[in-house]
Design brief:
With about 55 residues, the protein is mainly α. The protein has 2 helices and no strands. It has one domain. The protein has helices at about 5-20, 25-45. The longest helix is centred in the first third of the chain and has 20 residues, at about 5-20. The mean pLDDT is about 90.
Length: about 55
C-alpha cells in the first residue's frame, strides 16, 4: 500500500472516530471496538468480508 492510500484511510478512520465521539460515543467504547476488531483481524489474518453483510 502506498503512503497516499495509507494516509487517506487513516484520515477517514480519524474522521469517523471523531464524529462518533462528537455524537456522544464514549472514548473507551471506541477504543474497545477498535481493539476487538483488531483482535478479529489478527485472528483471521484478514478483514472478514462477512462484515459487509447486514446480518
Amino acid at each position: 500500500m502506498d503512503d497516499d492510500v495509507f494516509s487517506d484511510l487513516a484520515a477517514d478512520l480519524e474522521a469517523w472516530l471523531a464524529t462518533q465521539s462528537q455524537d456522544g460515543a464514549p472514548d473507551l467504547v471506541l477504543v474497545g471496538l477498535l481493539r476487538g476488531y483488531a483482535d478479529e483481524i489478527e485472528r483471521h489474518g484478514y478483514v472478514p468480508r462477512s462484515w459487509l453483510s447486514d446480518e
